[in-house]
Each structure stands twice: as C-alpha cells, then as structure tokens.
Write a structure and sequence with these properties.
The complex is a heterodimer. Chain A contains 12 helices and 2 strands. The two termini of chain A are 37 Å apart. The mean pLDDT of chain B is 86.
Chain lengths: 329, 302
C-alpha cells in the first residue's frame, strides 16, 4: 500500500529524508540488480550459444578447415564430410520459397493495409498470422501426406509439361514422393506470415496525407501504391523479406519430413535433396563417430553465421523505419 | 438538350490505367484468399484425418505396442505439459525482468543493444538452439545439480525456454511502453520509491498484456520440435512425472509417427496433430484477442 502522509505531520527536511529509508534503497537496488542481471543473462545466452556451437564444431573445423564449405562428399564410412550440396540445398529451398512468398506476402500486406474494408482487416490479418502459429511438425505431417502426393500427381507433371525443357524443372517420369519442390512450398507457407505481418506494419506507417494527395492528383490505387507507398518503405520491405528468408533458412523439422534427405543433389527441383538444418535433424541421433557429430555441428555453425548476418542486417533496416516512425512525430 | 454528349467511358491510356489497377487489386485479393485457403486446407486435413482416431482412451493410454491398433498419447501430453511448464518457469521471470530493466532502468543505448540481441536470439534457428542445449545440458562433463550426462525434461525445458525468452521479453517491453508516464509520475509525486512504483503501479497496469504475451510464447514453445530432438527424445512408454527423466512430447510423437510405415501410427500422428493444433490455435487466438483489448485500453489513443 502507498504510504499515508498525515496532514498534521507534514515532514520537514530531516523527516523527508527518512521516507526514503533503508528499505527503499535496498528495494531499488535489489530491483535494479535483479533486472540488470536478467538482461545480462539474455546476452550471455546469445554468447553461450555461439560459443557452444563453435566449440562443438571445433574438431571438424580443425580437420576439414574452411574447405568443408565447398567439399561435396558426405560419407560417414570414410569420415569425409563436406557441406556444399547441403548449402546449395538450403539456398535453393529458401530462396525458392522467398521467390514465391515475397510477392505473395507483399500483395497480402497491401490488401490488408490499403484495400480491405476496415471491418475485415483485423480478422483476416489474425487468420493469416495464425499460419505462423501452426507448428512446423504439423506442416511437415501435412506436407508428407497431403501436399507431396498432390505435388507428385498434379503440380509437378503440370509444371514440367510447360517448363520441363529447363533442366531444373525436368521431370524424370518416375513419381518421387519427397522433393525439393515440396520443401519449397512448405517453406513458402511458413515464411509467408512473418513477411506479410512486417510489410503490413510498414505500409500502415506511410502517412495517409501523401497517400490521399496522390489519389487527389488522379492516381489510381495501384499507382498510389507503386509511386508513394512502396518507395516510402522499400528498404523495410527488403528487410521483411530477409527476415522471412531467415525463417526459411533455419527450418529443420518440416523440411526433413518432406525433402527426402538425400545428397548428392540432383539438378531438378522435382527430385530429392537436403538442407543444412534438415541434415542435422535427420542424422544427429544416428551419428556414428565423433567427427560426424562435429561435422553436423559445423553445419549448425554455418547456419548460425548465415542467419546471424542476415537477421542483423534486416533488424538494422527495420529499426531505422521504427525510428523514423516514432522519431518523426 | 443541346449539351454535347461527353463519353465517360475511359479509352486509351486512361482505360489501360484502370485495367492495370483492377488487375493489381485482383492480385492482392487473390493472394489473401490463397493464404486463407492454405490455412483452411491445413486445418481441414488435420480435422478429417485426426478426428476419427480421437476417443477417450487416446488421452488416457500410452502408445500402442508393436502391431497393435489404438493406443494413446497420455505420456506425451504429460511430457509436453511438463516441458512447457519448466520452460515457462525459466523464461517468464527472466523475460519480464529483462523488459523491466530495458524499459525502466537502462540507458537508451544499452536498451537498444539488449533489444537488438533479443531479436537476434529470436532469429536463431531452433535446431541450433537444440544443439546448444544438448551441449549445455546433456553432453557436459560435470553434471550441474544432477542434470547432465543424459537427456531429461530439464534439458528439453531449458531449450524451449531459450526459444521463449525473446518472445516474452519483447512482448512485455511492448506493453510496458504503453503504460502512461503520468501513472509513474503520479506515484513518484506521492513519494513512492521506484521499486514500489514498478511493482505496484507499472506491473499491475500491464499485467494483462504480459500474460497474453506469455501465452503466445507458450503456444509457440508447445509446438517446437527441433529443440527437443537432442535434449528430450529417447523416452519411456508410460506417463512419467520425473523431470530428471527424458519424457515424451506431442511434437516429437507426431514427428516420429509421421516417418513410420504403420498406418495406425499415421492415424495417431494426425490425432496428435489435431490436439496440438487445437491447443496452439485456440490459445494464440484468445491471447491475441485479449492483447488487442488490453492494448486498446492502455494505449487509449492508438
């Protein structure tokens, strides 16, 4: 309860000092100390993650050096390990996913911020955010038993009948149940909501004045978006796509369920493949030697570096927009 | 009646602009519809394939023995509950205290840094956090407090708490920022010290928001699979309340059953997915709804 101050005993100078007594000084100090400790703990966890992963990968780093990154063999029998095909698989799946998810997310964000009637913006936005709440293992399960058969029977024959002359869309004719393409689709769904949510915030932050001015000058809604809204937040949109990319790069479970976990990589995306994260999830328990475990952690280290750099860069850009928004008014 | 008839139908360039506009609007609507359709299809698939396998014994029995049909996920439900409880017990206090420090005490530059690094932590792949927790809790040379040397619910809960920490901290920061400054100043003006102001004015005002933020983090942690893969995967087949043992969990059950070749286990996987998705979606929807409400109440302008 708040301390009661009686009117008759309005404190003079010395009494006032007493109200900030030992108890409060201890309390203030204690709360400050506790909260500061908790904050430092968060930073320590980040440092500990980097340290433990680097430490675990060290035996493999010593043996394979940096050549690990472009060496393409992964052979537990001869203890020769390299990350090239996995790295390519990670890049192909996540960039492929963002190629689909990026435009889709921007269009959704535009729908939610500029086009939809205000009364349905909230509910639809919430539903699209719910795509992010569905656990990755459920997407994986769905990917294996619903999406992959649909891909194999309908989508892939259809696509390769148009694009089959390009090697990456070539269809061998045999039905492959687990494909890189399915992984791309699953990752698209998973990266979509985060990118859409950030883009929506960005588009909403564009001042209504200049939007209305543009409409007032006779622009159509699309011209307003193209000439006013998007240029105002272009960097932020790029950052939002990179954050979605980070989500796709690191996804292990759903990818390992649908991609088939097989290297060497084939040229077509309608074949099996593998990624960094998915290989760790798939092989860690069955690893036969210390060097294989260390190599798997080396993969994690590569993944950590990639996501770390891309996230940091994207966060910086998003921060700048936050600053503009709050600093401007 | 002699006014010249003006043709209001757009032609040429104007017509092209209108058509392009229509196309763009159509594409935006279509994109939103695609996203909604995907959500609907996922939920429908889980409902259609999960519901038939759901019955009372699914919630009360252990996994089926080899070749048998039926069975349930009681150990996984208990295990998931325990893992999330442990994770919340770690992450909630640390997250809330961090947010209090950043909002009430920290110098601006340092606060920025903490925010940034929390976002970086949030961006770390969950599989990497799993490896970290494995190296930190499972594969240690000297066991701390009897934890170590083997997988346990402690290790799994710790891994999940690392996932939850940035979510709780960021959500709490957002809410604390919305507490109007005049409340704090009013408290100070009454001669109340800072720590009492924080505990008795700031925290109670933002309690609802913190709770919903924590709920969203719980929903996220409950569905995480990758951090448990190395920390809490090899478990017994019966209900186990001992956190120093490795326990079953719903996400890992789905993951393992999904890769099996037994159709009965597929049905179990879908039913487990139904339980998980129902829990996650209901709690996140409820939390978001409450969050919007408390934000409106606090923000009063926004």
């Amino acid at each position: 309860m708040l301390r009661r101050v009686e009117a008759a005993t309005v404190p003079g100078e010395p009494v006032l000092r007493n109200t900030r007594g030992a108890g409060d000084r201890v309390g203030d100090g204690l709360l400050y100390g506790l909260t500061a400790l908790a904050s430092v703990l968060g930073l320590v966890v980040v440092a500990a993650i980097v340290w433990r992963v680097a430490d675990g990968a060290w035996p493999a780093v010593k043996v394979f050096k940096l050549a690990f990154v472009w060496h393409d063999e992964w052979n537990p029998v001869t203890s020769k390990f390299g990350a090239r095909d996995l790295l390519i698989g990670t890049v192909v799946t996540s960039f492929g996913a963002m190629l689909l998810a990026g435009p889709l997310a921007i269009a959704i964000a535009l729908f939610l911020s500029e086009l939809a009637p205000p009364s349905i913006r909230g509910p639809i936005g919430t539903l699209i955010d719910m795509l992010a709440a569905v656990p990755s293992v459920v997407y994986g399960l769905w990917g294996i038993y619903v999406l992959a058969p649909f891909d194999a029977h309908h989508l892939q024959p259809f696509l390769s009948s148009f694009l089959g002359w390009i090697p990456i869309f070539a269809h061998g004719g045999d039905e492959v149940p687990s494909t890189v393409f399915t992984a791309i689709l699953v990752l698209t769904i998973m990266a979509l909501p985060i990118t859409a949510a950030i883009c929506r915030e960005l588009f909403l932050s564009v001042p209504a004045d200049i939007e209305e001015a543009s409409i007032g000058l006779g622009a159509t809604r699309w011209e307003m978006v193209r000439t006013v809204v998007v240029p105002d937040v272009r960097g932020g949109v790029v950052a939002a796509v990179i954050l979605g990319l980070g989500r796709a790069l690191g996804e292990a479970i759903a990818v390992t369920q649908v991609i088939g976990n097989f290297i060497p990589l084939k040229l077509s995306i309608f074949e099996t493949g593998d990624t960094l994260a998915s290989r760790i999830a798939n092989q860690y328990q069955g690893a036969v030697s210390n060097i294989q475990v260390a190599s798997l952690i080396y993969l994690a280290l590569i993944l950590l570096v990639i996501t770390f750099v891309s996230n940091l860069a994207a966060q910086r850009v998003v921060k700048r927009f936050e600053f503009q928004r709050t600093g401007g008014t | 009646m002699s006014a010249p008839a003006i043709d209001l139908v757009a032609t040429g360039r104007a017509r092209r602009r209108l058509v392009v506009n229509r196309l763009a609007e159509g594409a935006a609507v279509l994109s939103a519809l695609i996203a909604l359709a995907v959500l609907a299809i996922v939920i429908y698939s889980v409902l259609r394939r999960g519901l038939p396998a759901l019955n009372l014994s699914f919630f009360t029995k252990g996994p089926p023995l080899f070749g048998q049909t039926g069975g349930g996920i009681a150990p996984a439900i208990v295990g998931s509950f325990m893992l999330v409880a442990i994770a919340t017990a770690f992450a909630l206090p640390v997250g809330v205290l961090t947010a209090i420090y950043v909002n009430e005490f920290a110098p601006k530059r340092f606060a920025e840094q903490i925010r940034l690094w929390l976002d970086v932590l949030n961006g770390f792949p969950s599989i990497v956090i799993g490896i970290f927790a494995f190296a930190f809790c499972v594969k240690v040379k000297v066991p701390i407090l009897g934890i170590g040397h083997h997988q346990s619910a402690w290790a799994g809960g710790f891994a999940l708490s690392v996932i939850m920490l940035p979510l709780v901290a960021r959500a709490t920061m957002e809410v604390l920022r919305l507490v109007p400054n005049h409340l704090r100043e009013g408290s100070y003006a009454l001669g109340v010290s800072k720590w009492q102001t924080v505990l008795r004015v700031v925290l109670p005002t933002s309690f609802g928001g913190i709770l919903t933020g924590a709920t969203l983090a719980v929903a996220r942690a409950a569905g995480e699979t990758a951090p448990l893969l190395f920390t809490c995967a090899i478990a017994g087949q019966v209900v186990d309340w001992d956190p120093s043992h490795s326990v079953q969990s719903i996400p890992l059950t789905i993951f393992e059953y999904s890769e099996s070749s037994d159709p009965n286990l597929h049905a179990q996987a879908w039913a487990s997915a139904f339980v998980l998705i129902a829990f996650v979606l209901v709690t996140s929807m409820a939390a978001r709804f409450l969050l919007d409400r408390s934000r409106r109440k606090l923000g009063s302008g926004r």
